[in-house]
Design a protein that fits this description.
Alpha-Beta Plaits; six-stranded mixed sheet; elongated
């Protein structure tokens, strides 16, 4: 099923809903504004005091322009690997959870299992916010959450946040021979970009290290820039996009505020020439960092079920911070490796899938979370 973020995910959601319905399980769906996408939440073991969430996102990144040797939607099995878009990130986890639905229903565990499958994780973790809000409104209070992102089945207890913004700069156009009568939007944008670069260098030079991350400090970068219409026209408009990837111990709000303060400091000079000149900011996405603990019962549960004595940190963002901020202890643990995700010929090894299958069966056989 093609559930690239730009498309509807309803075919997959309805497939899961209908499969669960045949087992007597009712699903809660929460939709986006135009009803083209949905989250699914279902409880297997209704009536038990509380449950453990198995969480996964249903959307994938696209494969346009990538050089695949297999059909990205084929789920081809070759040479001990399952190939296809989403095989690593992260439909394999969802499929294995669904395949074990009957085992969860038959389980004598004193807790229920919840399925929580979201939309639009890849473009900003938008869907899961609606799902979590629905749980809160319905008074559903899960005990813990396991997010099946690709960690090689090693429990991950931390990741950085991802905060992206768009800055639109309005200046005043003029013939390039009359620059004193203009406000150059590109040049004003460049000054703000310079501030962001200075911040990035400051993080690298001065921020306390958080060992275990590939890059053990927060980062800032500019990813896109657009502006100008001709060489001899002072540009009125410019736009750029930038991001912060903050350590779990960093203050990302202070980072963004520093950019806003610099913009406000530049505006008086711009507005002396053109009163309507200035900066406008839009939030693209805010994915909070995640910091769990080796002492959390759900972490110890994931270690026991995965057979891993240690834990890891991951560089990529997940929905974990949102679940934890909702008061749900969370760990990230799933099959496959992020190095294979988003790539041509994305795959998860059959060995990883077998480990996840054992994880699911162990969860069904558990008698306690800790």
């Amino acid at each position: 099923m093609n559930t690239v973020s730009a498309n509807s995910n309803l075919e997959l959601i309805h497939f899961v809903r209908d499969a669960l319905r045949t087992l007597g399980v009712t699903s809660r769906l929460t939709f986006n504004a135009d009803k083209t996408k949905a989250n699914l939440f279902a409880t297997l073991g209704e009536g038990k005091p509380a449950g453990v969430i198995l969480s996964g996102h249903t959307d994938t990144v696209p494969w346009d322009g990538q050089d695949w040797t297999v059909d990205p939607l084929s789920a081809a099995v070759q040479d001990g690997r399952l190939y296809g878009r989403g095989s690593a990130d992260m439909k394999s986890f969802i499929a294995l959870a669904l395949a074990n639905a009957q085992a969860f229903l038959d389980s004598a565990a004193p807790f229920a299992i919840h399925f929580a499958f979201s939309y639009d994780e890849e473009v900003g973790c938008f869907g899961v916010r609606e799902l979590i809000a629905d749980l809160r409104d319905a008074g559903i209070r899960p005990l813990a959450c396991i997010i099946g992102e690709p960690t090689g089945m090693v429990p991950a207890i931390a990741h950085k946040g991802v905060y992206r913004y768009r800055c639109c700069v309005r200046g005043k156009e003029a013939h390039s021979s009359l620059t004193p009568q203009s406000v150059n939007a590109i040049e004003m944008a460049a000054r703000l970009i310079g501030k962001i670069r200075d911040m990035a260098e400051g993080f690298e030079d001065n921020e306390p290290r958080y060992e275990g991350f590939d890059v053990p400090f927060s980062t800032a970068s500019v990813g896109q820039f657009h502006g100008g219409i001709a060489d001899n026209v002072v540009p009125r408009d410019a736009e750029f996009r930038y991001e912060f990837r903050d350590l779990p111990t960093a203050d990302v709000r202070a980072m963004q505020q520093a950019v806003l303060d610099q913009a406000r400091a530049l505006e008086p000079g711009m507005q002396r020439v053109a009163p309507d000149a200035g900066f406008r900011f839009e939030t693209i996405c805010e994915i909070p960092s995640f910091l769990g603990s080796v002492d959390d019962p759900v972490t110890r549960l994931a270690q026991r079920l995965s057979g891993e004595k240690g834990t890891t940190l991951v560089a990529f963002g997940t929905e974990a911070g949102l679940f934890k901020n909702a008061g749900i202890p969370t760990v990230v643990c799933g099959p496959g490796h992020i190095a294979q995700a988003h790539q041509p010929d994305e795959y998860a090894s059959l060995d990883q899938l077998a480990r996840c299958e054992a994880f699911m069966r162990g969860l069904a056989a558990s008698r306690a979370i800790a």
